Amino acid sequence: MVFEIVYFDHYGRVDLVKLIAEVANIPYKFVGIEDKDWKDFQPTTRYGLLPFVKINDKWTLYQSIAISRFFAQEGEDNLYPSDRVEATITEEYVAALEDAYNKFVYATFLAPEDRKEEETKRLTEGVLRSVFKVLNAELENNGGYLLPGGKLTWADLYFVEFASNLSYYTKIDPVTFAPQIPKLRENVLKHPRSKAYLESERNLRKSVF
Ligand SMILES: N[C@@H](CCC(=O)N[C@@H](CS)C(=O)NCC(=O)O)C(=O)O
């Protein structure tokens, strides 16, 4: 079964989904929609937003976090912990990252031009600072992983991918907010499938981090 991941034909929010699919060894095909085709394509989507994944003929799954969780649960290497407490802790971290990610999207892409600077300041002095501080402390305690025991989870992949989105789309340096991010990146690169993907043409960021 090859899952079809549909997003715009560039780097962005879907890259967490792709990274998890790669690390979890989920077979997928990426379909990139060109910006010029979006107006006609949008009404065919459930929420008017991308990404989505065609799971099978009957089921198309939307929402990047739901897709990421599904792939982490379905695939190899226990990216979604089987222990209920550990899984719930990763849910907390993913939800906290999502709070910050949504504010990053607003400040960077959606806010009116004349408010972007102020919204970016609100982001960096508010939720980004507080969430990255908490997660940085966990990385520090756990040798560059969010959970104890050297276990890579979907929450680590979200953190590393969000940091890359910040570096790619803004002037914000995520490492100033979470100095342990280089250690996390090192750990992510220790996973052979993650390294192979990040160095491949399939990585539309075209740089490892
Ligand atoms: N909560 C959704 C958000 C999806 C979303 O905002 N997608 C943006 C691209 S990153 C989009 O489709 N924008 C097109 C538009 O607003 O017309 C998810 O995580 O999948």
From TrEMBL:
<dbReference type="GO" id="GO:0004364">
    <property type="term" value="F:glutathione transferase activity"/>
</dbReference>
<dbReference type="InterPro" id="IPR036249">
    <property type="entry name" value="Thioredoxin-like_sf"/>
</dbReference>
<feature type="domain" description="GST N-terminal">
    <location>
        <begin position="1"/>
        <end position="79"/>
    </location>
</feature>
<dbReference type="Pfam" id="PF14497">
    <property type="entry name" value="GST_C_3"/>
</dbReference>
<dbReference type="InterPro" id="IPR050213">
    <property type="entry name" value="GST_superfamily"/>
</dbReference>
<feature type="domain" description="GST C-terminal">
    <location>
        <begin position="80"/>
        <end position="209"/>
    </location>
</feature>
<protein>
    <recommendedName>
        <fullName>Glutathione S-transferase</fullName>
    </recommendedName>
</protein>
<dbReference type="InterPro" id="IPR036282">
    <property type="entry name" value="Glutathione-S-Trfase_C_sf"/>
</dbReference>
<dbReference type="InterPro" id="IPR010987">
    <property type="entry name" value="Glutathione-S-Trfase_C-like"/>
</dbReference>
<dbReference type="GO" id="GO:0006749">
    <property type="term" value="P:glutathione metabolic process"/>
</dbReference>
<dbReference type="InterPro" id="IPR004045">
    <property type="entry name" value="Glutathione_S-Trfase_N"/>
</dbReference>
<dbReference type="InterPro" id="IPR004046">
    <property type="entry name" value="GST_C"/>
</dbReference>
<dbReference type="InterPro" id="IPR040079">
    <property type="entry name" value="Glutathione_S-Trfase"/>
</dbReference>
